Amino acid sequence: MLYLPQKLTGWLITIVAVSMSVFHLYIAFFGAPDAYVMRGMHLAFALALAFLILPGRDGKAKSPNLFDLALLIAAAAASLYPMFNLEYIRMRMYYVDDPTTLDYVFGITLILVVMEATRRATGLALTVTAALFLLYGLTWGNQSVGIMLDQLYLTTEGIFGIPLYVSATYVMLFILFGAFVERSGAGQLFMDFALALAGHTSGGPAKVAIITSSLFGTVSGSAVANVMTTGTFTIPLMRRTGYRPAFSGAVEAVASTGGQLMPPIMGAAAFVMAEFLGTSYLAVAAFAILPAILYYVAVFMAVHFEAKRIGLKGIPKPDLPRLGKVLRERGHLFLPLFVIIGVLLSGYSAAYAALCGIGSVIPTTWLRSTTRYTFTPKAIIEALEAGARNTLVVALACACAGIVIGTITLTGLGLAFTNVVMTASQNMLLPALILTMLAGIVLGMGLPTTPAYIVQVALLVPALVRLGVQVEAAHLFVLYFAVLSAITPPVAMAVYAANGISRAGLMESSWAAVKLGLTGYIIPFMFVFGPSLLMIGEWHVIVGTVITATIGVTCLAAALHNYFFFGHTHIWERLFLLGAAFVLINPGLYTDIVGASLVGLTVASQLMLARPRRGEAEIPVSDAPETQPVAPATRERQPGE
Question: Which of the residues 85, 394, 433, 478 has the least number of beta carbons within 10 Å of its own beta carbon?
Answer without folding.
Answer: 85
